[in-house]
Amino acid sequence: MQTHKDLDVYKLSVDFVAEIYDLTKNFPKEEIYALTSQMKRAAISIPLNIAEGAARNSKKEYVQFLYISLGSCSELETCVIIGEKLGYINDAEKLNDKITRLKQMLLGVIKYQKQRR
Q: Under 8 Å CB-to-CB from 20, ≥6 apart: which residues?
């Protein structure tokens, strides 16, 4: 039986959380309750909402949680832009490419779920 843990988007998002946690270790200490915290919360929200949605009893709820994950991707994307402008992130393009990939994958799962009967 397949679960959310078998989805490539879930696996990629979990790996990305670890990458964001590692990246934010180098942020200034004064950012610990601001940008650092926000980036971690947005990143971790992606796989958490995939998992929570998959545990729901309806396709409609699952899709709603996938949309929340998608929103968290956009939130994280904005944090990366801000982090780059503040000089905390050197390779924002690489991070944003991964976020774009996550968004595409989430949209694929959403489309699949909506077409399922």
A: 39, 40, 43, 76
**Tens digit of pLDDT for each residue in 20-37?**
999 999 999 999 999 999
Alpha carbon of residue 117 to chain centroid: 27
- pTM score over 0.85: yes
pLDDT, tens only, 56-92: 989 999 999 999 999 999 999 999 999 999 999 999 9
C-alpha distances out from residue 80 to 7, 56, 63, 71, 112, Å = 25, 31, 26, 14, 29
CB neighbours of residue 26 within 10 Å: 10
Contact 53/65 with Cβ under 8 angstroms?
yes
